[in-house]
Design goal:
This is Xyloglucan endotransglucosylase/hydrolase. It is an enzyme of class 2 (transferase). With 322 residues, the chain is of the alpha+beta class. It has a single domain, classed as Jelly Rolls, CATH 2.60.120. 16% of the residues lie in helices and 31% in strands. The strands form two sheets. Strands 1-4-13-6-7-8-9-15 form an eight-stranded antiparallel β-sheet. The protein has a seven-stranded antiparallel β-sheet with strand order 2-3-14-5-10-11-12. The longest helix is centred in the first third of the chain and has 17 residues. The N terminus is likely disordered. It binds 2-acetamido-2-deoxy-beta-D-glucopyranose.
Protein backbone atom coordinates (compact mmCIF):
# COMPACT_ATOMS: atom_id res chain seq x y z
CA UNK A 1 0.00 0.00 0.00
CA UNK A 2 1.69 3.15 -1.16
CA UNK A 3 -0.72 5.72 0.04
CA UNK A 4 -1.43 7.29 3.29
CA UNK A 5 -4.89 7.16 4.78
CA UNK A 6 -6.15 8.36 8.09
CA UNK A 7 -7.15 5.68 10.57
CA UNK A 8 -10.78 5.36 11.53
CA UNK A 9 -10.00 4.81 15.16
CA UNK A 10 -10.33 7.77 17.46
CA UNK A 11 -8.12 6.68 20.32
CA UNK A 12 -5.30 8.83 21.61
CA UNK A 13 -2.72 6.81 19.72
CA UNK A 14 -4.39 7.09 16.37
CA UNK A 15 -1.52 9.12 15.02
CA UNK A 16 0.70 6.22 15.75
CA UNK A 17 -0.36 2.95 14.19
CA UNK A 18 2.69 1.30 12.73
CA UNK A 19 1.04 0.67 9.38
CA UNK A 20 0.52 4.39 8.89
CA UNK A 21 3.93 5.29 10.11
CA UNK A 22 5.64 3.28 7.44
CA UNK A 23 3.28 3.85 4.55
CA UNK A 24 3.18 7.57 5.09
CA UNK A 25 6.93 7.89 5.33
CA UNK A 26 7.52 5.91 2.18
CA UNK A 27 5.25 8.45 0.57
CA UNK A 28 7.59 11.24 1.37
CA UNK A 29 6.67 13.36 -1.59
CA UNK A 30 2.96 13.04 -1.28
CA UNK A 31 0.66 15.85 -0.29
CA UNK A 32 -2.36 14.04 1.15
CA UNK A 33 -5.73 15.18 -0.16
CA UNK A 34 -8.67 15.18 2.23
CA UNK A 35 -11.22 12.70 0.90
CA UNK A 36 -14.30 11.19 2.50
CA UNK A 37 -13.42 7.58 1.86
CA UNK A 38 -10.34 5.42 1.87
CA UNK A 39 -10.95 4.53 -1.77
CA UNK A 40 -11.10 8.13 -2.91
CA UNK A 41 -8.09 8.95 -0.84
CA UNK A 42 -6.14 6.18 -2.48
CA UNK A 43 -7.07 7.48 -5.93
CA UNK A 44 -5.98 10.99 -5.01
CA UNK A 45 -2.72 9.58 -3.73
CA UNK A 46 -2.00 7.75 -6.94
CA UNK A 47 -2.38 10.96 -8.94
CA UNK A 48 -0.23 12.92 -6.54
CA UNK A 49 2.54 10.33 -6.77
CA UNK A 50 2.55 10.40 -10.53
CA UNK A 51 2.75 14.19 -10.57
CA UNK A 52 5.51 14.24 -8.00
CA UNK A 53 7.59 11.72 -9.91
CA UNK A 54 7.33 13.79 -13.06
CA UNK A 55 8.47 16.81 -11.11
CA UNK A 56 11.68 15.16 -9.91
CA UNK A 57 14.52 17.51 -10.74
CA UNK A 58 17.52 16.49 -12.77
CA UNK A 59 20.80 16.84 -10.93
CA UNK A 60 23.51 19.28 -11.86
CA UNK A 61 27.19 18.49 -11.64
CA UNK A 62 27.64 20.55 -8.46
CA UNK A 63 25.56 17.84 -6.81
CA UNK A 64 27.97 15.07 -7.81
CA UNK A 65 29.09 14.23 -4.28
CA UNK A 66 25.51 13.73 -3.21
CA UNK A 67 24.61 11.50 -6.14
CA UNK A 68 27.67 9.32 -5.73
CA UNK A 69 26.41 8.16 -2.37
CA UNK A 70 22.65 8.62 -2.64
CA UNK A 71 19.68 8.40 -4.93
CA UNK A 72 17.39 11.38 -4.52
CA UNK A 73 13.72 12.00 -5.06
CA UNK A 74 11.75 15.25 -5.03
CA UNK A 75 13.26 18.46 -3.66
CA UNK A 76 16.82 17.73 -2.59
CA UNK A 77 19.60 20.31 -2.94
CA UNK A 78 23.33 19.85 -2.55
CA UNK A 79 25.42 22.79 -1.40
CA UNK A 80 28.12 23.95 0.98
CA UNK A 81 28.08 25.79 4.27
CA UNK A 82 30.22 28.85 5.09
CA UNK A 83 33.18 26.61 5.96
CA UNK A 84 32.92 24.63 2.74
CA UNK A 85 31.32 21.54 4.24
CA UNK A 86 28.92 19.58 2.07
CA UNK A 87 25.28 20.13 3.02
CA UNK A 88 22.28 18.29 1.61
CA UNK A 89 18.96 20.05 2.11
CA UNK A 90 15.48 18.68 1.65
CA UNK A 91 12.78 21.20 0.87
CA UNK A 92 9.07 20.73 1.48
CA UNK A 93 6.60 22.95 -0.32
CA UNK A 94 2.98 22.57 -1.32
CA UNK A 95 3.91 20.49 -4.35
CA UNK A 96 6.49 18.12 -2.97
CA UNK A 97 8.79 17.01 -0.21
CA UNK A 98 11.98 15.11 -0.83
CA UNK A 99 14.10 12.16 0.09
CA UNK A 100 17.55 10.71 -0.37
CA UNK A 101 18.59 7.09 0.04
CA UNK A 102 22.00 5.44 0.17
CA UNK A 103 22.91 3.42 -2.92
CA UNK A 104 24.47 0.74 -0.74
CA UNK A 105 22.70 -1.45 1.78
CA UNK A 106 24.35 -2.43 5.05
CA UNK A 107 24.12 -5.16 7.62
CA UNK A 108 25.14 -3.71 10.99
CA UNK A 109 27.00 -0.48 11.43
CA UNK A 110 27.16 2.94 12.99
CA UNK A 111 25.26 5.60 11.05
CA UNK A 112 25.57 9.22 11.91
CA UNK A 113 24.47 12.55 10.53
CA UNK A 114 24.22 16.14 11.68
CA UNK A 115 20.82 17.70 11.12
CA UNK A 116 19.43 21.19 11.42
CA UNK A 117 15.65 20.98 11.57
CA UNK A 118 12.94 23.25 10.20
CA UNK A 119 12.92 26.53 12.19
CA UNK A 120 9.83 28.36 13.49
CA UNK A 121 6.44 26.86 12.83
CA UNK A 122 7.25 23.33 11.70
CA UNK A 123 3.94 21.84 12.82
CA UNK A 124 2.82 18.98 10.62
CA UNK A 125 6.23 18.40 9.06
CA UNK A 126 8.26 15.27 9.69
CA UNK A 127 11.99 15.03 9.02
CA UNK A 128 13.70 11.68 9.27
CA UNK A 129 16.93 9.72 9.32
CA UNK A 130 16.32 5.98 9.19
CA UNK A 131 17.39 2.58 7.94
CA UNK A 132 15.08 0.32 5.99
CA UNK A 133 15.30 -2.98 4.16
CA UNK A 134 12.62 -1.83 1.69
CA UNK A 135 8.89 -1.99 1.16
CA UNK A 136 8.47 -5.74 1.12
CA UNK A 137 6.19 -7.44 3.63
CA UNK A 138 8.17 -8.48 6.68
CA UNK A 139 10.64 -5.64 6.25
CA UNK A 140 13.07 -4.38 8.90
CA UNK A 141 13.55 -0.74 9.81
CA UNK A 142 15.22 1.49 12.41
CA UNK A 143 13.76 5.00 12.67
CA UNK A 144 14.54 8.45 13.92
CA UNK A 145 11.72 10.83 13.02
CA UNK A 146 11.40 14.43 14.10
CA UNK A 147 7.84 15.61 14.51
CA UNK A 148 7.55 19.33 13.95
CA UNK A 149 5.57 21.65 16.19
CA UNK A 150 4.27 25.19 16.42
CA UNK A 151 6.81 27.93 17.07
CA UNK A 152 8.21 27.60 20.59
CA UNK A 153 6.63 24.18 21.21
CA UNK A 154 8.87 21.16 21.68
CA UNK A 155 9.87 18.92 18.77
CA UNK A 156 9.46 15.22 19.51
CA UNK A 157 11.89 12.61 18.27
CA UNK A 158 10.17 9.34 17.49
CA UNK A 159 12.37 6.24 17.61
CA UNK A 160 11.22 2.86 16.39
CA UNK A 161 12.51 -0.58 15.50
CA UNK A 162 10.81 -2.88 13.01
CA UNK A 163 11.55 -6.56 12.74
CA UNK A 164 9.81 -8.79 10.22
CA UNK A 165 7.19 -6.14 9.49
CA UNK A 166 6.26 -5.54 13.12
CA UNK A 167 7.00 -1.98 14.19
CA UNK A 168 4.82 -1.24 17.17
CA UNK A 169 7.81 -0.30 19.28
CA UNK A 170 7.81 3.47 19.33
CA UNK A 171 9.36 5.59 22.01
CA UNK A 172 9.21 9.37 21.68
CA UNK A 173 11.34 11.93 23.43
CA UNK A 174 11.25 15.70 23.55
CA UNK A 175 14.62 17.21 22.74
CA UNK A 176 16.36 19.27 25.41
CA UNK A 177 17.57 21.88 22.94
CA UNK A 178 16.20 23.74 19.94
CA UNK A 179 17.03 21.35 17.07
CA UNK A 180 16.56 24.12 14.50
CA UNK A 181 19.00 26.58 16.07
CA UNK A 182 22.03 24.60 14.93
CA UNK A 183 23.31 21.23 13.87
CA UNK A 184 23.12 18.27 16.25
CA UNK A 185 24.43 14.78 15.67
CA UNK A 186 22.01 11.85 15.47
CA UNK A 187 23.44 8.35 15.50
CA UNK A 188 22.12 4.82 15.11
CA UNK A 189 24.38 2.02 16.32
CA UNK A 190 23.09 -1.30 14.99
CA UNK A 191 24.85 -4.54 15.86
CA UNK A 192 23.88 -8.12 16.58
CA UNK A 193 23.09 -7.41 20.23
CA UNK A 194 21.30 -4.08 20.34
CA UNK A 195 20.13 -0.98 18.52
CA UNK A 196 21.27 2.23 20.20
CA UNK A 197 19.87 5.68 19.42
CA UNK A 198 22.16 8.59 20.24
CA UNK A 199 21.64 12.34 20.28
CA UNK A 200 24.96 14.17 20.26
CA UNK A 201 27.04 12.29 22.85
CA UNK A 202 24.10 10.95 24.84
CA UNK A 203 22.49 7.55 24.63
CA UNK A 204 18.75 8.07 24.27
CA UNK A 205 17.37 4.57 23.80
CA UNK A 206 18.70 1.03 23.63
CA UNK A 207 16.63 -1.73 22.02
CA UNK A 208 18.06 -5.05 23.20
CA UNK A 209 18.01 -8.30 21.26
CA UNK A 210 16.41 -11.32 22.92
CA UNK A 211 17.16 -14.66 21.33
CA UNK A 212 13.51 -15.68 21.18
CA UNK A 213 12.09 -12.35 19.96
CA UNK A 214 12.13 -10.66 16.54
CA UNK A 215 15.16 -8.48 15.86
CA UNK A 216 16.43 -6.77 12.71
CA UNK A 217 19.45 -8.96 12.10
CA UNK A 218 19.16 -10.61 8.71
CA UNK A 219 18.12 -8.03 6.14
CA UNK A 220 20.50 -5.43 4.73
CA UNK A 221 19.17 -1.90 5.08
CA UNK A 222 19.73 1.33 3.18
CA UNK A 223 20.03 4.72 4.88
CA UNK A 224 17.22 7.18 4.20
CA UNK A 225 16.49 10.84 4.88
CA UNK A 226 13.13 12.43 4.18
CA UNK A 227 11.06 15.54 4.78
CA UNK A 228 7.33 15.18 4.26
CA UNK A 229 3.90 16.45 5.19
CA UNK A 230 2.69 14.47 8.19
CA UNK A 231 -0.26 16.75 8.91
CA UNK A 232 -2.60 13.85 9.51
CA UNK A 233 -0.77 12.56 12.54
CA UNK A 234 2.43 14.35 13.40
CA UNK A 235 1.59 17.30 15.59
CA UNK A 236 -0.71 17.03 18.57
CA UNK A 237 -2.15 13.89 17.08
CA UNK A 238 -3.03 15.48 13.77
CA UNK A 239 -4.85 18.51 15.17
CA UNK A 240 -2.20 20.98 13.99
CA UNK A 241 -1.57 20.91 10.23
CA UNK A 242 1.21 22.29 8.09
CA UNK A 243 0.85 26.06 7.67
CA UNK A 244 1.73 26.45 4.01
CA UNK A 245 2.12 30.22 4.34
CA UNK A 246 5.40 29.41 6.12
CA UNK A 247 6.64 27.19 3.25
CA UNK A 248 9.12 26.25 1.94
CA UNK A 249 10.35 24.18 4.90
CA UNK A 250 13.99 23.17 4.84
CA UNK A 251 15.94 20.58 6.80
CA UNK A 252 19.72 20.37 6.33
CA UNK A 253 22.04 17.39 6.70
CA UNK A 254 25.83 17.34 6.85
CA UNK A 255 28.67 15.18 8.17
CA UNK A 256 27.05 11.90 7.15
CA UNK A 257 28.94 8.72 7.90
CA UNK A 258 28.15 5.03 7.52
CA UNK A 259 30.78 2.98 9.34
CA UNK A 260 29.16 -0.29 8.38
CA UNK A 261 29.35 -3.80 6.95
CA UNK A 262 27.99 -4.81 3.57
CA UNK A 263 26.81 -8.29 2.55
CA UNK A 264 29.44 -9.98 0.36
CA UNK A 265 27.16 -12.52 -1.27
CA UNK A 266 25.41 -15.71 -0.32
CA UNK A 267 27.32 -17.86 2.16
CA UNK A 268 30.17 -15.37 2.50
CA UNK A 269 31.00 -13.35 5.61
CA UNK A 270 30.08 -9.69 5.77
CA UNK A 271 32.56 -7.23 4.30
CA UNK A 272 33.33 -4.91 7.20
CA UNK A 273 35.61 -1.90 7.57
CA UNK A 274 38.67 -2.33 9.80
CA UNK A 275 38.03 -1.91 13.51
CA UNK A 276 34.33 -2.73 13.61
CA UNK A 277 34.69 -3.28 17.36
CA UNK A 278 34.09 0.46 17.63
CA UNK A 279 30.44 -0.33 17.19
CA UNK A 280 29.96 -4.08 16.66
CA UNK A 281 30.57 -4.86 20.33
CA UNK A 282 29.00 -1.66 21.62
CA UNK A 283 26.64 -2.00 24.58
CA UNK A 284 25.67 0.78 26.95
CA UNK A 285 28.17 1.17 29.76
CA UNK A 286 27.00 1.84 33.31
CA UNK A 287 27.33 5.57 32.70
CA UNK A 288 25.45 5.31 29.41
CA UNK A 289 22.70 3.37 31.19
CA UNK A 290 22.51 6.47 33.35
CA UNK A 291 21.80 8.72 30.39
CA UNK A 292 19.16 6.28 29.11
CA UNK A 293 17.41 6.59 32.47
CA UNK A 294 17.85 10.34 32.47
CA UNK A 295 16.26 10.68 29.03
CA UNK A 296 13.42 8.36 29.98
CA UNK A 297 12.72 10.18 33.25
CA UNK A 298 12.88 13.70 31.93
CA UNK A 299 12.09 13.67 28.24
CA UNK A 300 10.03 10.64 27.34
CA UNK A 301 6.75 11.63 25.73
CA UNK A 302 5.43 8.26 24.56
CA UNK A 303 6.36 4.66 25.34
CA UNK A 304 4.68 1.73 23.62
CA UNK A 305 5.41 -0.35 26.71
CA UNK A 306 3.11 1.93 28.71
CA UNK A 307 0.28 2.16 26.18
CA UNK A 308 -2.24 -0.27 27.61
CA UNK A 309 -4.94 0.90 25.23
CA UNK A 310 -2.90 -0.25 22.30
CA UNK A 311 -2.00 -3.62 23.75
CA UNK A 312 -5.16 -4.72 25.55
CA UNK A 313 -4.03 -8.34 25.51
CA UNK A 314 -0.69 -7.59 27.12
CA UNK A 315 2.47 -5.76 26.20
CA UNK A 316 5.05 -7.12 23.76
CA UNK A 317 7.34 -9.58 25.53
CA UNK A 318 10.43 -7.34 25.52
CA UNK A 319 8.59 -4.79 27.66
CA UNK A 320 9.01 -6.97 30.73
CA UNK A 321 12.60 -8.06 30.06
CA UNK A 322 15.67 -6.33 31.39
C1 LIG B 1 3.84 20.02 20.40
O1 LIG B 1 3.56 20.90 21.46
C2 LIG B 1 2.47 20.52 22.28
C3 LIG B 1 2.22 21.64 23.28
O2 LIG B 1 3.38 21.87 24.06
C4 LIG B 1 2.73 19.18 22.92
O3 LIG B 1 1.62 18.77 23.68
C5 LIG B 1 3.03 18.16 21.82
O4 LIG B 1 3.35 16.91 22.40
C6 LIG B 1 4.20 18.64 20.98
N1 LIG B 1 4.66 17.71 19.98
C7 LIG B 1 3.91 17.16 19.04
C8 LIG B 1 4.61 16.27 18.09
O5 LIG B 1 2.72 17.36 18.92
Amino acid sequence: MLCYARPHRTDRTNHWPASLLVSSKKQSILIPQPAPSMARRAAACAVAVAVALLAAVASSSADAWLHEEFETEGNVRAGYDARGRQVASIVLDRQSGGAFRSRRSYLYGQFSVQMKLVPGNSAGTVASFYLSSGNEPGHDEIDMEFMGNSTGQPVALNTNVWANGDGKKEQQFYLWFDPAAGYHTYTIIWNDRNVIFKVDDLFLRCFTRHADLPYPGAKPMAVHATLWDGSYWATQQGRVKVDWSAAPFVVSYRGYSADACVPAGAGRPLACPAGTDRWMTRRPSAAERGTLDWARRNYMHYDYCADGWRFPKGFPAECSRA
